[in-house]
Amino acid sequence: MRTKLERREHFSGLLFVAPLIAVLILVAGWPLARTLYFSFTDAYLDDSANHVLIGFRNFVDVAGDPVWWRAVRNTAIFTAISVAIETVLGLAIALLLHGAIPGRGLVRAAILVPWAMPVVVSTKIWEWMLNDQFGVVNRAIVGLGLADHGVAWVANGSLLLGVVIFIDVWMTTPFMVLLILAGLQILPEEIFEAAEVDGIPWWKRLWSITLPLLAPTIGVAVLFRVLDALRMFDLAYVLAGANVNAMTMSIYARDRLINNQELGVGSAASTMVFLLIALVAIFIVGAMRLDRSGAAER
Amino acid sequence: MSMRIKRRSAAYYRAMRRVRQFALGCLTALLLFYVLFPYYWAIVSSTKQGAELYNSVLLPALDFRHYKELFRDANFATSILNSLCVAIATTALSLGLGTLAAYALGRLNFPERRSLLLTVLMISIFPQVVVLSGMFELIRWFGLYNRVWSLVFAYLIFTLPFTTWVLTSFIREFPRELEEAAIMDGCSHWRILTSILLPLMGPALVSTGLLAFILAWNEFLFALTFTLTEGSRTVPVAIGLLAGNSRYEYPFGPIMAASVTVTLPLIVLVLFFQRKIVAGLTAGAVKG
């Protein structure tokens, strides 16, 4: 009897997820498999049916291209710095909003605005604000007497990656704030009250109570953000196109694939992006597990 | 003696509290300025004409010529329509398929459940550029290249895992007692989902749907790659590719007008459904 019920549940379960599986195979599994396959061919985009297998030559080509390594470096710098700033700033803002401050509801609503804006729009607005001659930022800098002339934020290649990080921090800190705030709200109040009654200073409460308890939440948020930052395309592309100073791995792969029409090499670059991101994901998830089991042993 | 110390310390604490309140108020104001000023500045700039754009008057000039031109531009209207169609179709499809799968993943016991959930999560963190070449080929096979419907197809790769994941965690929150009586009566799973759970899932569907809509509305990489001509562009691509006749004549006024226009509905939606959106965002991440 039981096995019959179980079998029925198994069958209905599969029936309910069948459409999901079918669509995911069509839009994710198949294209992924084709990308992997193309990365071993010499195919071109305009005539993709006409190709031969050439082994690992595309991968060698990409690995020998200094522009690719520049893109890897840019992406790594962008990810490390922007996620670090977003985590610290997000934590600070979440703690601020968690306390009793005037107009909390208003601030909580306002913080969603940068998050809801399309990346393209945010980038365009900041590009205008950071315009070297007429941008409001440079006007403020000159007006306040901080510098004689404005800074060429976007036009100067060495500042470009910094500007990309700055805009990304503005756009995605709200996401961090929301996740950390949700994590803060499920922490037990009593611990903090007890610590406060015992006269423990706020920085010690933050360091020894809040942060350890928040660690799993922050870990998940950082994981999401790192994986998202590693595949970043739109912000740097809208701001700088395929400029090497801000080129990310995704921009490199798309540039080879679409602009150069090199289906084989572009697919190889995409595959390398995929492998790198999978490696980082495994590393972070492993580190989080270790951290948790370590805490449990203690 | 001790009384005096106490009195002094009370005043000291009161003063400290006031300083603290003031500091927090300043921080909050600073935060509001940081978060809101760029959009405000876009509004200000979008109502300035010609040379006005280059002064730094902080108030809007209230000249709506850029908006009038924008709405007279057939291509821009088309791209808004394209974006709406794509985002609505993607959201509807993802919610439908996602609800079906979420019921099985959240409620039914079958051996493949865990690995399927893990696969769904993994696909949602996929770098999109990885499927670009395979997707490109597929879209050309279907004859969808340069058609907006190709984007509905492509967007399912990130909206469907997202809605499935979030709806699964919503369904798990519902008390099981709801369906127990129905199971006793021999109700089919389809009936349980449609007659018992679905009527309760309104809020969950709204928050998940809004997030999926925003994801689809804002997407750039696929939209840039799978469309070619102005008539099939979505709004982000149209704005991203809006450029002047020469590099010295960058049309910041019109770009700001377009930016304000396409962001306004999103901001209204977000402010209106603020709590639901936060619930949807955190349901997927924190509890998962």
Write a concise synopsis of the structure shown.
The complex is a heterodimer of chains A (298) and B (288). By secondary structure, chain A is mainly alpha-helical. Chain A has one domain: MetI-like (MetI-like fold).
How many helical elements of chain B? 13
Report the structural category of chain A. Answer: mainly alpha
In sequence order, what are the helices and strands of chain A, one letter per element?
A: HHHHHHHHHHHHH
CATH class category name of chain A: Mainly Alpha
Largest sheet of chain A: none
The Rg value of chain B, from CA coordinates, equals 26 Å
| Strand segment tally of chain A | 0
Low-confidence stretches of chain A: none
Q: Approximately what portion of the residues of chain B adopt beta-strand conformation?
A: under 5%
Instruction: Tell me which protein chains meet in the greatest interface and how many residues each side has.
Output: A-B, 96 and 89 residues
CATH architecture of the largest domain in chain B, by name, is: Orthogonal Bundle
Number of alpha- plus pi-helical segments of chain A: 13
Spell out the helices and strands of chain B N to C.
HHHHHHHHHHHHH
Number of strands of chain B: 0
Keywords (chain A): Cell membrane, Membrane, Transmembrane, Transmembrane helix, Transport
Subcellular location (chain A): Cell membrane
Protein name (chain A): Sugar ABC transporter permease
Transmembrane segments (chain A): 12-33, 76-97, 109-130, 136-154, 161-186, 206-227, 234-253, 265-288
